[in-house]
Amino acid sequence: MWLNPSGGGILHRQGGRACFTWLAPCLALALFLGGLPGCASRQDTQLPPPRKYSGPGPGETPPPAPGKSGKVPGTQRPYTIQGKTYRPLPSAEGYHERGIASWYGPNFHGKRTSNGEQYNMESLTAAHKTLPMDTWVEVTNQENGRQLVLRINDRGPFVDGRIIDLSKAAARDLGVLGKGTALVEVKALGYRQMGTGVAGKPAVYVPPPSYDTGTFTVQVGAFTNTANAQRLAAKLRPQWGTVSVVRYDRGDAVFHRVWVGKVSRLEEAKALQERLRAAGQDKAFAVAW
């Protein structure tokens, strides 16, 4: 198990997969309830029939965008796997990428995905490292021309060079199952509108909510010794104004994170981040409050 004091979560291993649990009351995360995919499964063992899929379907409404409270879903917060930090995209609008797809199946069937659903390897879903959860994407296998529309409900794959981890059903339909990996093109479509996806009628998609508005700050350090955190905060206040020391209780250890500023747009937080880095705080990074 690893602590991610800078990102606000706990990482642990579950069945060979990195899992991330948030310490704030929000959606289970890969930032959460666990079950982040890491790589493709290559063995097709005999298992009981898949459980009934209970996740949101094509015709259901997407999660709401941050309201006046400025709360950002846990799945939109930065998270760290094996020393590398991933920052979910504020919006899927305009996302278009080519890369290697893999798939995961029996070893994770029935376990929790990053957004808290039960993984069903026979549903058309996939894992992506940074796209907003519940975004529908169009995946085209560049090796055979097959095309499929599926929904992002998990985080991964955490293997260099891979951009998407397909469910077993999606891999089968795209012709990836036997080979294990394939070159694909992924294009974000958005959310499916309520009542669409009906047989004989084309689905209509709307852009996912943008998470670049809410409440943000910049973290410049995390300390086990509260005196060290308070000392840094006192040093920064004369120049930077609002500086907070936020207690983070991991369970077996307590960390004190130093946050500078409090703004309402991610763009502002990133600008503050760069100013802090230029001033010598080279580990500064923007986070959701």
Q: What features would you describe in this structure?
A:
Helices cover 12% and strands 34% of the residues. It contains three helices and 16 strands. The chain is mostly beta strands and 289 residues long. Residues 1-70 have low confidence and may be disordered. The chain folds into two domains: 2-48 and 56-206, Barwin-like endoglucanases (Beta Barrel), CATH 2.40.40; 213-288, Sporulation related repeat (Alpha-Beta Plaits, 2-Layer Sandwich), CATH 3.30.70.1070.
**Low-confidence spans: pLDDT under 50, at least 5 residues?**
1-70
Number of strands: 16
Q: If you consult CATH, what is the topology of the largest domain?
A: Barwin-like endoglucanases
SSE run: EEEEEEEEEEHEEEHEEHE
Number of domains: 2
Assigned CATH architecture of the largest domain? Beta Barrel
Structural class: mainly beta
- Portion of residues within helices: 10-25%
